[in-house]
Amino acid sequence: MFGFLAPGSGTSVLHSRRAAASRCGRRRLVARANVDVTKFPSEGSKDAVDVNKQPQEYVQLKEMLKGVSIFMIGMMGSGKSAVGKVLAQQIGYAYIDTDEVIQESMKMPITDIFEEHGEAGFRQVESVVIQQVSPYVRTVVSAGGGAVLNQENWGHMQNGLVVWLDPSVETIYERVKGDASRPLLKVDDPKAMIESILRERESLYEQADVKIGIEPEEGIEVVAFNTARGLTRFIEANPPKSAAHRPVGL
Ligand code: S3P
Questions:
Q1: Is 123 in the pocket of ligand 1 (CB under 6 A)?
Q2: Can you name a GO cellular component term (predicted)?
Q3: Residue 223 CA to chain centroid, in angstroms?
Q4: Mean pLDDT computed over 94-100
Q5: Is pLDDT at 124 greater than 70 in this prediction?
Q6: What is the pTM of this model?
Q7: Average pLDDT in the 125-139 region?
Q8: Ligand 1 contacts CB of residue 146 (under 6 A)
Q9: Percent of the chain, pLDDT > 90?
């Protein structure tokens, strides 16, 4: 809605055939995945936040968002889920973690999905989940770190505002080391891998509407607060185009 325009893509016959074949494979995998995102949206407001103690920034952000959803992107270990949950709770939004939806629907952990279907299989299901959640309003969606690799995902995320959480490689490494749940980091030198993945994806993450730098000592609450402020500033600088201001007939 407020987002940037995704770069256009030319379509050749070859590309169309490949796309058709991959759509076919995707249908099979997705049928198996039995994706049902409707099980996931939970009312962010349920864990009642005391509105009298609630920082004004969240109240203001909620008003300004007018129900528009938020997509959290960034590297593994950047805090998307933890920060997304706090943000959702503070502004009374539902919260969805695409990795959780994928694992639940495939009935297996992400490492097993990578082993059985490869990264490509995982990405197909991930795209379907993002497509399915993208029409939701009043929802914070935490997307897997690699969701930015697929251009279609960007198209879907433009239904909302996109936030990039950007801690340093060192911080990411400290958070994910010893965690066996990320197949891409099951390598001899996970830190070098983090560096390499970040280098590859940085220009994609940069496409976010809002970038939140994270200092190593900053906790979840601080980052969530900074995210709310970043979003408010972004909306102030990019007010949504109201239908009332559009020329008649468009
Ligand atoms: C991935 C990130 C993971 C998960 C999968 C692949 C990535 O999610 O989707 O292991 O490619 O960066 P988190 O970013 O939530 O860890």
A1: no
A2: cytosol
A3: 16
A4: 98
A5: yes
A6: 0.85
A7: 97
A8: yes
A9: 73
Best substitution site from 71, 76, 171 to test ligand 1's pocket, by max atoms within 8 Å of Cβ? 76
* 124 vs 27, residue with greater confidence: 124
pLDDT of residue 135: 96
DSSP code of residue 144: -
Q: 12-48 as b/e, with b when 16 or more CB fall inside 10 Å? A: eeeeeeeeeeeeeebeebbeebebebeebbeebeeee
- Residue 98 CA, closest ligand 1 atom number: 9
Distance CA 213, CA 217 (A): 12
Which atom, in ligand 1's list, is nearest to the CA of 197? 12
Check: CB of residue 168 under 8 Å from CB of residue 216.
yes
Show me where the domains of the chain are located. Answer: 36-245
Report how far ligand 1's centroid is from the alpha carbon of 116 (Å): 16
| CB 109 near ligand 1, within 6 Å | no
Q: Give 170's contacts (C-beta < 8 A, 6+ positions apart).
A: 216
What mean pLDDT comes out for the span 119-130? 97
Is the distance from CB of 208 to CB of 157 less than 8 angstroms? Answer: no
Backbone angles phi, psi at 140, to 5 degrees: -100, 125
Average pLDDT, the chain: 87
Candidate of 71, 184, 194, 196 to mutate for ligand 1, largest count of ligand atoms within 8 Å of Cβ: 184
Alpha helices by DSSP H, listed for 149-189, are: 151-157, 169-176
Predicted pLDDT of residue 29: 78
**Among 80, 99, 163, residue to substitute to test ligand 1 (most atoms within 8 Å of Cβ):** 99
